[in-house]
Amino acid sequence: MHGELPKQVLTQRSRSKRHYYALGLLLIVAASALVYYVATPAQQQKQGRRFADGGGAVPVLAAAATNANVPVYLDAVGTIRALNTVTVRPQVDGKLLEITFKEGQAVKRGDVLARIDPTTYKALLDQALAKKAQDDALLTNARNDLARYEQLLASNAINRQQFDTQRSLVAQYTAQVQADQAAIDSAQATLAYTTIRAPIDGRTGIRQVDEGNIVRASDANGIVVITEVQPISAFFNLPQQELGAVNTAFAKGPLAVDALRSDNGAVVDRGTLRVVDNQVDSSTGTVRLKAEFPNTDLQLWPGQFVNIRLLIDTLQQALVIPTGAVQRGPTGTFVYVIGDNSTATMRPVTVQRQTETQTVIRSGLTPGERVVTTGFARLTDNSRVTVSDPAAAATGTAAPAAPAARRPRGDGSKRPPAAPP
Hints:
The protein is an alpha+beta fold. It has helices at residues 4-52, 119-154, 160-192, 243-252, 390-395; strands at 58-64, 66-88, 94-99, 106-107, 112-116, 195-197, 202-204, 214-215, 224-239, 256-260, 267-281, 286-293, 305-322, 327-329, 332-338, 343-348, 350-354, 358-363, 370-374, 383-387, 407-408, 414-415.
């Protein structure tokens, strides 16, 4: 008996809990139904008031199809490189006496960059000059003897052999003097190499050696690297499918190239296309191109990555609409055209080119027709619409303007215009 009593008590408590749960569930359902029946008419009333003035029309934004000159661009990512890069190395061995440039300095061709001890090379030049002076004296004496032998030969005072020997001696000394002059030129050039000059216009980098060191012509690092950054070049790749269009446009004349910032798309510099590579990279299916920019403000720097925009054509008076107006369905691209009776009709169109902001229509529209750009959520074929921004439709702009001012209704009250979905 003592073991059965707790089971009965537990059974009764369990039944009581189930009753409470059922009662609570019924109360929740009843409260939800009450809220639904109370709120739904109010919501319907509100929705009805919202579209009452438009007769149930769908609020949209619209823009007019216009004719415009549309540039055709090819986009790529480019790498900036110096137009010319030179590692300045010594051409003779010796002690580096002086460095006359500052790191990062802009230099011109011929500016002195450094000087090497010239003592040894000046001595070699003096030696060559002395040797030439000695041979010049021998040549002068030999020429005087030849003139005298010529007079003696005319009077048969000497034989012909002596005259020919003297003439050969003059030729020998003449050749020796010429060799001396070549030695002088070589010594002068070697001496000039002790003064290191800039071979190109450009900007110096970080120097690789300090004053007082012994430098050699075989040194790999050199003294400094000079890069030519005005003008500057950019290398970029395009798919091989674009090669035909690029070559066709390039054959007509220089092509404009824009260097754009990667963060906001602003134009950094404008240049021209210089080279299309003579082969396609079979591993990537791309072709390499080179453009040149004046880089007047030094906005481009070697090693920098920039976005490249290559202009290959301009579509004259093409039919243009905002890209947001173009929709895609099972049968292709289409737009909603707003008629005179404020009805939006679906119309298939053929797209020629498309960017993020505008689309060129090949066929399906005529200039001046208005197309819906925003408000497609409740829009169907032959729906009545109300253009929330008439100024945008008149000017052909796609961007929504500021909300229209409140205007009086027929009953004298005021309400704000319906907002687009």
